C-alpha cells in the first residue's frame, strides 16, 4: 500500500473580486428579523433545568457557611451547588474559571453557589434564599497612582511591557516645546445587546465521543473547548461547542468566563438533564470582563515647527489579584508618529476585583485617546493646525519595528476628512464661535489598529451537486456580518454566485477557527476559505462529483515579516457646549479610513459607524464606578451606566479609501471591527476644547467640567 503525504500548504492566489466588494444583503437577515434565529438563551431542550448564580457580597475573605436549606425548601428548586459539593476540577491554573473549588473569595460578585430549579423564576427565588456567611478580610479595590507599581511580564496579547529607545530625558530637556500632562480614561463595561448565556449537557459516551455539549454565547467556540476541556479532565474531542447566533460581544465573549464553567459543573450533577444559565445584565458587571481604567502620563517634545523629538507614554492601570490581565495601552504610541527618542511603560495596581478583559480596541482605544489629546495640546503650543502637526510627524518607516509600512495612508485620511468636514473654515483659536448660548468647536484625531491574522485556521469545501458547494469553518458571527462576507469570499474563491454557497459556521465539529476578535476574523477565516477552495479546484477540477471534499489550512504569509501591517483613519468632530449648563452635543462626526479592500460596503459601514458611536459614547457617557469601600461596581445596569442613545447620534458618517492590500491576504482586506472606536473620543474632547478653551483630560467629558 502506497502512503501519500498532503502537499505543503501554498499561499492562496489573490481573489478576482466578483461578489467581494458588493453590498450583498445579510444572508441571515430573514432569520433574524422573523425571530427564527435562536440565540443561546432561546435553546430549550426537554427536561431543561434552569441555573441561577449566588454571588459573594464581600470583596475578600472566605465562605464560612452556605445554608442551602431555605432554597431547597422552595417549590421547584432541585439542588444547590457550592464549594463543598461541586464536581472537582482536574486543573485549576485558570483561577477565573476555577470556581466552587474552595471557600476563598477573591472579589465581590464571585460565584459562590449555583441554584438549579425547574423554572428560571424558582431558580432566582431560590438563589435569593441561600444564606451565606463569610470570614471577611481587608481588601483593596481602588486604582491610584501610588499603588499601580507592579510590572507585568508582558501586555496583551504578548507585547513588551516597556520600550526605551534613544535618550528621552535629554531630548525633552533640550526641546523648545514640551507637553507634559496626565490623561485618564474610565472603567468601561461591555454591554452587548445579548447577555451571556450557556446551555450545557453531559451524556455517557463511548471512547472518543463527545461528553459535554455547550450552546454558548461566545466569540470563539474552539477557544471555549481549549479553556474548559483540560480543567474538566477531558480531551478536546470530548467537548462540542456551538454558537449559532450571537448578539454582540465587543470582546467580552472572546474568552470563557466563570459562568460557562458554572453551567458545565452544574450540568455534571443532573444525571443527563441539560442546564441553562443566563447571566443578567447586573451580573455582567461582575463576571464577564470590562475595560480597566487607565492613567496615561504623556510627555511630548518638539521643535518650534512641531516636529517631535521625543515621546514618552507611561501607563498605570489595574489588574485582578485572581488572574493577571495587562492592557496594552501604550502600544499604539510606539508606532504612530516619528520621533528619535521614545519610551513607553505599563504598571499595574493588583486589586481584589474581577478580572479585566478585552473591550473593543483594548489598548488602542484608551492609549490613542491620551496620545491624540496630547497631540492637540502640542499643536496649540506650537501654534499649528492640528491636521498639519500630524502631517509633519509622518514616519518613513514603522518607528517600532523599523520595517516599511505595507500601506500607510494616514495623510490621505486626514486630507480627505479635512476636505469633507470643511476644516479650512475652522477658526484658529478656541472659544471663537458662538451660536446663541452654545460655544461651537471642531476637533480631529488620528486612528490606527494593527492588521491581524491569527494562526490555526482551516476550512472545508464539499461539492453538493448541481453547482452548489458546502463551505464550513468553525468561525463565529457575533452580529458583524461574518456569515455574509465569508459567503462572498467563498463564492469568489470557487467562481460561483453567492447563492450557490451553503455556509456552515460556529461549531467545533467544523475545521478550527480563531476567535472573532482583534479585527482579525475576516482576514484569518477568509484566507483559510480561499486556500481550501483553491486546493479543492486543484484536486477536483471545475466539475467535481457530488461528495468531493477538501480541507485545507491557511498558509503562513511570506510577506508577513517584510512589512508592518496597520490600518489608519482620521476622525473629525464638531462639539457644541452650552455656556450656562455645560451640556455637550456632537452634531457632526466623520471618520475616514484606510482598511484595504472592503468586502461588503453595507456591513462595513455598519461596523465603522458602530465604532464611531461607541467612541462617542466613551467620550461623553460611559463610566463604571466601583465603590472602593465594598469592591463592587455601583453602576450595574443601563439606567446607571449610560451609553449613547439616538438623541446623541446626529450627523455621523464613515467612508473609506479605495484600495486593496493583497500583500496582507488574498482578499486584499484588513480588519474594520475596532478602528472606528479608536481616536473618536479624542476628536470629541479636542472639539470641546476648541469650543470653550477648557481642556478636559479625562473621559467621559461631562458638563460640570465646563462650569465655574
Number of discrete helical segments = 14
Structural class call reads alpha+beta
- The strands making up the biggest β-sheet line up spatially as 3-5-1-12-9-10-11
> What top-tier CATH class of the largest domain fits best?
Alpha Beta
Per DSSP, what share of the residues sits in E-state strands of 2 or more residues? 15-25%
Number of strands: 27
User: For the terminal residues, how far apart are their CA atoms?
Assistant: 88 Å
- Identify the CATH architecture of the largest domain: 2-Layer Sandwich
Summarize model confidence as the mean pLDDT.
Answer: 96
Helix percentage: 10-25%
Taking pLDDT < 50 over at least 5 consecutive residues as the criterion, the unreliable ranges are 1-7
At CATH level 3, the topology of the largest domain is: Aldehyde Oxidoreductase, domain 4
Fourth-tier CATH superfamily name of the largest domain: Aldehyde oxidase/xanthine dehydrogenase, molybdopterin binding domain
Q: How would you characterize the overall build of this protein?
A:
The chain has 708 residues and is an alpha+beta fold. It has three domains: 29-40 and 454-553, Aldehyde oxidase/xanthine dehydrogenase, molybdopterin binding domain (Aldehyde Oxidoreductase, domain 4); 43-138 and 191-287, Aldehyde Oxidoreductase, domain 3; 163-189 and 291-452 and 562-706, 2-Layer Sandwich (Aldehyde Oxidoreductase, domain 4), CATH 3.30.365.10. Helices cover 22% and strands 24% of the residues. It has 14 helices and 27 strands. The strands form six sheets. It has a seven-stranded mixed β-sheet with strand order 3-5-1-12-9-10-11, with helices on both faces. A six-stranded mixed β-sheet has the order 7-15-14-13-8-27, sandwiched between helices. Strand 18 and strand 19 form a beta hairpin. Helix 8 runs parallel beside helix 14 (680-692), helix 11 packs parallel to helix 12 and helix 13 crosses helix 14. Residues 1-7 have low confidence and may be disordered.
Amino acid at each position: 500500500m502506497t502512503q501519500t503525504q498532503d502537499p505543503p500548504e501554498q499561499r492562496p492566489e489573490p481573489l478576482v473580486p466578483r461578489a467581494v466588494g458588493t453590498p450583498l444583503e445579510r444572508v441571515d437577515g430573514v432569520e433574524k428579523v422573523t425571530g427564527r434565529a435562536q440565540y443561546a438563551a432561546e435553546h430549550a431542550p426537554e427536561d431543561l433545568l434552569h441555573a441561577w448564580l449566588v454571588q459573594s457580597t464581600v470583596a475578600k475573605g472566605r465562605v464560612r457557611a452556605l445554608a442551602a436549606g431555605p432554597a431547597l425548601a422552595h417549590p421547584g428548586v432541585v439542588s444547590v451547588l457550592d464549594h463543598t459539593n461541586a464536581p472537582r476540577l482536574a486543573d485549576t491554573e485558570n483561577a477565573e474559571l476555577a470556581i466552587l473549588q474552595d471557600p476563598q473569595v477573591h472579589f465581590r460578585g464571585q460565584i459562590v453557589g449555583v441554584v438549579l430549579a425547574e423554572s428560571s423564576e424558582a431558580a432566582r427565588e431560590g438563589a435569593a434564599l441561600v444564606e451565606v456567611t463569610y470570614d471577611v478580610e481587608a481588601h483593596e479595590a481602588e486604582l491610584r497612582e501610588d499603588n499601580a507599581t507592579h510590572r507585568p511580564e508582558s501586555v496583551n496579547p504578548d507585547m513588551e511591557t516597556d520600550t526605551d529607545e534613544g535618550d528621552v530625558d535629554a531630548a525633552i530637556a533640550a526641546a523648545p516645546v514640551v507637553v507634559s500632562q496626565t490623561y485618564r480614561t474610565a472603567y468601561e463595561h461591555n454591554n452587548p445587546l445579548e447577555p451571556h448565556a450557556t446551555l450545557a449537557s453531559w451524556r455517557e459516551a463511548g471512547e472518543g465521543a463527545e461528553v459535554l455539549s455547550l450552546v454558548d454565547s461566545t466569540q470563539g467556540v474552539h477557544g471555549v473547548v481549549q479553556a474548559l476541556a483540560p480543567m474538566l479532565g477531558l480531551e478536546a474531542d470530548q467537548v462540542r461547542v456551538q454558537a449559532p447566533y450571537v448578539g454582540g460581544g465587543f470582546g467580552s465573549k472572546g474568552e470563557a468566563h466563570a459562568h460557562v464553567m458554572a453551567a458545565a459543573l452544574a450540568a455534571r450533577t443532573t444525571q443527563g438533564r441539560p442546564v441553562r444559565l443566563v447571566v443578567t445584565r447586573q451580573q455582567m458587571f461582575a463576571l464577564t470582563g470590562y475595560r480597566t481604567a487607565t492613567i496615561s502620563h504623556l510627555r511630548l517634545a518638539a521643535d518650534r515647527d512641531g516636529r517631535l523629538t521625543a515621546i514618552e507614554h507611561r501607563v498605570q492601570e489595574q489588574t485582578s489579584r485572581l488572574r493577571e490581565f495587562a492592557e496594552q495601552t501604550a502600544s499604539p504610541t510606539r508606532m504612530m508618529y516619528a520621533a528619535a527618542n521614545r519610551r513607553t511603560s505599563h504598571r499595574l495596581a493588583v486589586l481584589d476585583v474581577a478580572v479585566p478583559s478585552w473591550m473593543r480596541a483594548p489598548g488602542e482605544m484608551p492609549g490613542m485617546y491620551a496620545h491624540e489629546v496630547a497631540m492637540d495640546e502640542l499643536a496649540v503650543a506650537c501654534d499649528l493646525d492640528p491636521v498639519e502637526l500630524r502631517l509633519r510627524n509622518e514616519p518613513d518607516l514603522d518607528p517600532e519595528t523599523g520595517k516599511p509600512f505595507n500601506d500607510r495612508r494616514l495623510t490621505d485620511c486626514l486630507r480627505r476628512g479635512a476636505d469633507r468636514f470643511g476644516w479650512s473654515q475652522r477658526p484658529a483659536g478656541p472659544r471663537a464661535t458662538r451660536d446663541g448660548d452654545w460655544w461651537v468647536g471642531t476637533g480631529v484625531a488620528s486612528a490606527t489598529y494593527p492588521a491581524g491574522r491569527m494562526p490555526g485556521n482551516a476550512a472545508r469545501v464539499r461539492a453538493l451537486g448541481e453547482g452548489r458547494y458546502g463551505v464550513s469553518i468553525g468561525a463565529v458571527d457575533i452580529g458583524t456580518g461574518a456569515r455574509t462576507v465569508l459567503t462572498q469570499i467563498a463564492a469568489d474563491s470557487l467562481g460561483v454566485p453567492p447563492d450557490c454557497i451553503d455556509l456552515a459556521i460556529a461549531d467545533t465539529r467544523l475545521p478550527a477557527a480563531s476567535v472573532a476578535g482583534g479585527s482579525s476574523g475576516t482576514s484569518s477565516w477568509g484566507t483559510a476559505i480561499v486556500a481550501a477552495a483553491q486546493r479543492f479546484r486543484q484536486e477536483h477540477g471545475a466539475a467535481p462529483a457530488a461528495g468531493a471534499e477538501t480541507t485545507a489550512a491557511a498558509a503562513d504569509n511570506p510577506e508577513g515579516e517584510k512589512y508592518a501591517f496597520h490600518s489608519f483613519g482620521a476622525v473629525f468632530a464638531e462639539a457644541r457646549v452650552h455656556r450656562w449648563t455645560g451640556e455637550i452635543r456632537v452634531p457632526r462626526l466623520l471618520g475616514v479610513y484606510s482598511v484595504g479592500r472592503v468586502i461588503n460596503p453595507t456591513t462595513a459601514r455598519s461596523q465603522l459607524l458602530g465604532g464611531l458611536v461607541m467612541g462617542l459614547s466613551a467620550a461623553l457617557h460611559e463610566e463604571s464606578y466601583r465603590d472602593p469601600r465594598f469592591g463592587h461596581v455601583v453602576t450595574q445596569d443601563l439606567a446607571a451606566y449610560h451609553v449613547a442613545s439616538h438623541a446623541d447620534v446626529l450627523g455621523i458618517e464613515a467612508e473609506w479609501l479605495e484600495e486593496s492590500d493583497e500583500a496582507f491576504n488574498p482578499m486584499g482586506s484588513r480588519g474594520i471591527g475596532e478602528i472606528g472606536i479608536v481616536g473618536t473620543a479624542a476628536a470629541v474632547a479636542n472639539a470641546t476644547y476648541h469650543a470653550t478653551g477648557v481642556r478636559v483630560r479625562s473621559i467621559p467629558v461631562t458638563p460640570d467640567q465646563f462650569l465655574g
